[in-house]
Write a structure and sequence with these properties.
This protein is an all-alpha fold. The protein is built from 25 helices and no strands. The protein has helices at 5-24, 26-29, 33-38, 45-56, 59-72, 87-100, 107-115, 119-154, 161-209, 212-216, 241-250, 255-271, 278-285, 289-321, 323-328, 338-346, 351-387, 393-417, 421-445, 451-471, 477-497, 504-514, 521-530, 540-566, 569-589. Helix 1 packs parallel to helix 17 (351-387) and helix 7 (107-115) runs antiparallel to helix 8.
Length: 596
């Protein structure tokens, strides 16, 4: 593909600006670990919220969501609950505040607050570090696949996709290593601005080029309907038969069963709290628990509307104008090429440079956030805790540089071995998270889970997540989740009940500082005996009400831009009404009642 010199200049200016930011912030970021990994906990909540949203707006995920909307139509809005996307609602309502009250640097350090420093706590600490590193490597491999395939189509040099991936990963690693979290956040604000402009451009182009009648000729009955029955009931015969094959391969034809499994899995993962990645890092970097909650709410506002406007625009253009090319691929149809095909054919000179810079920004933002989060576990939770606890700050910063490079190298190595975007996505969201869920759910809500129980739950869960695809290759990642969850939960309970409880002093401190609701009665009684004025958390019913309203609110933010792009006026008006009502409810029962 040939790119105009103007477009190349825009891309180069963007890349140069990101590198320059890393160099400029190097001195400020290198003060200590708190400055390097959390920006000194001085950044405003809305800046961190936009930064977090930018980190989630990645090329690889966008290509996957384009595929979902193309194949499943409006019913595809439920499929990202596999992650689950509504975990941000649980964070917004109560979990971010709980987590921020811990006042730690990483999720592994949080384990010390919860379980203390005895042997069981140390084993738990190590298990979290291992999980964090395994998940980071998975995300880096995921990003490697996306940026390589994307760049090979758009950039003018005849290079292998893996070479492009190495180039852009190298540039991103440089500014992350130099500037730490301050560099990541500042560049993500720029990246988010570019991505939002790019998303609106794509949506407007699609609206101008495609009429509702043109779209109706290339989609099956039910494509525009967000609701579903027992079966999916989308028949692409006579339009694009290979799509029927892809739906069968995904195994989601019995859509009601799929939806119930996704909802069950999503709720459990969400109440377990954030995984030890850049999402948790943004929560810990906020200035207070109240700001942590507002930051998580900002993510949904900033992320979903622009992202799904781009996704809807790309899908509409592909359906109307590229169906012949996709049909010609037969059973080997590659839906991951929809995004580059649409941009290549419909975006004019100048705007293409902005759009390509935006999509590169999307990749670099996610990659940067992941790279910045991972070394904290190696340096703070291994090197500082077990090897050299009294080293000067500069030594820790230099070790952070080295850890960042090591994590990137390992992630790239796994990226070379990854078969496709979809395969690594399914493994991350269904397999690996199955191993994480049970132990991290119980740590918040059940006082009797001790360090040994947490360790065995995590160990069994991670081993099952890694081994299940090898032992049972015919069982999908989603269907393996309940088995991994059950095995991990059983290990948690047995490991806890066969060993003594953690120190009551540790449990009382955690309970008073975090103030969770759940099964904490014995600890609550001890705290009340010593501190009669202590106010326990009685907000369970209100929090669950806000979660339910929040999920409806967030889903409205997802579906509204799609209705705008495909020009469905009545559903659009109804969605705006739902969004308005749920926003008022959240303002009254969540926002006004936030506290530190």
């Amino acid at each position: 593909m040939k790119i105009h010199a103007i477009d190349m200049a825009i891309i180069f200016i963007y890349l140069l600006s990101t590198v320059s930011i890393g160099i400029m912030l190097k001195r400020r970021a290198a003060k200590n670990l708190d400055s390097y990994f959390l920006g000194g906990k001085t950044l405003p909540w809305y800046v961190l919220g936009i930064s977090n949203a930018s980190g989630m707006f990645d090329i690889t995920g966008t290509m996957w969501l384009v595929y979902l909307l193309f194949v499943y139509g409006l019913k595809s809005i439920w499929i990202p609950w596999l992650w689950p996307v509504f975990n941000q609602v649980f964070l917004m309502v109560y979990l971010s505040a709980w987590l921020r009250r811990s006042n730690v640097l990483t999720g592994a350090e949080w384990i010390t607050l919860r379980f203390g420093k005895e042997r069981g706590a140390n084993l738990s600490h190590i298990s979290v570090v291992v999980f964090a590193l395994v998940s980071v490597v998975g995300f880096l491999a995921y990003a490697f696949q996306g940026i390589g395939k994307f760049s090979a189509v758009f950039l003018p040099w005849d290079l292998h996709p893996n070479i492009y991936a190495l180039i852009f990963m190298g540039i991103t690693t440089f500014y992350v290593v130099m500037g730490g979290m301050l560099s990541v956040v500042l560049t993500e604000i720029i990246q988010f601005t570019v991505m939002t402009v790019a998303s609106i451009i794509v949506g407007i182009i699609a609206m101008n080029r495609v009429s509702p009648d043109m779209l109706a000729k290339v989609i099956p009955d039910g494509w525009k309907n967000v609701f579903f029955g027992w079966h999916l009931n989308l028949d692409w015969s006579g339009i694009m038969h290979a799509v029927n094959t892809r739906i069968a391969d995904d195994g989601w034809e019995l859509f009601s069963i799929f939806f119930m499994m996704v909802l069950f899995k999503g709720i459990l993962i969400s109440i377990a709290g954030p995984a030890p990645n850049y999402d948790m890092q943004r929560v810990l970097a906020t200035r207070s628990p109240k700001e942590a909650a507002k930051m998580s709410g900002m993510v949904s506002v900033a992320l979903f509307f622009p992202r799904f406007m781009m996704i809807a625009g790309l899908v509409v253009l592909a359906l109307v104008f590229f169906s012949p090319q996709l049909n010609a691929m037969g059973q080997n149809i590659d839906f991951e090429m929809i995004l580059p095909l649409a941009i290549n054919n419909f975006v004019p000179v100048g705007l293409m440079g902005v759009l390509l810079a935006g999509l590169l920004a999307a990749f670099m933002s996610t990659f940067a956030a992941t790279v910045n989060a991972a070394p904290a576990y190696l340096v703070n939770d291994i090197y500082k805790r077990y090897i050299n606890p009294n080293a000067p700050d500069k030594r820790y910063i230099y070790m952070s540089y080295a850890a960042s490079l090591c994590v990137v190298v390992v992630g790239i190595a796994f990226g070379f071995m990854t078969e496709s975007i979809n395969s690594v996505t399914q493994w991350i969201v269904n397999g690996l998270w199955g191993g994480y869920t049970a132990a991290n759910l119980l740590k918040w809500y059940w006082w009797r889970l001790n360090g040994y129980g947490y360790f065995w739950g995590m160990a069994v869960g991670i081993l099952m997540a890694l081994g299940f695809p090898k032992v049972f290759p015919d069982i999908s990642a989603l269907h393996s989740f309940p088995f991994i969850l059950a095995g991990s939960a059983l290990a948690c309970v047995i490991g806890s009940l066969l060993t003594k409880p953690d120190s009551f002093d540790v449990l009382k401190k955690f309970y008073m500082q975090t103030r969770p609701w759940g099964f904490w009665k014995p600890i609550e009684q001890k705290v009340m005996a010593e501190h009669p004025d202590f106010q326990k958390n009685t907000n369970f019913k209100r929090d669950m009400f806000n979660v339910a309203i929040g999920i409806i609110w967030q889903t409205s933010l997802v579906v509204l831009p799609i209705y705008i792009v495909i020009k469905e006026k009545l559903p659009m008006i109804v969605t705006i009404g739902i969004l308005f009502i749920t926003s008022l409810l959240l303002r009254e029962f969540w926002y006004k009642r936030l506290e530190d």
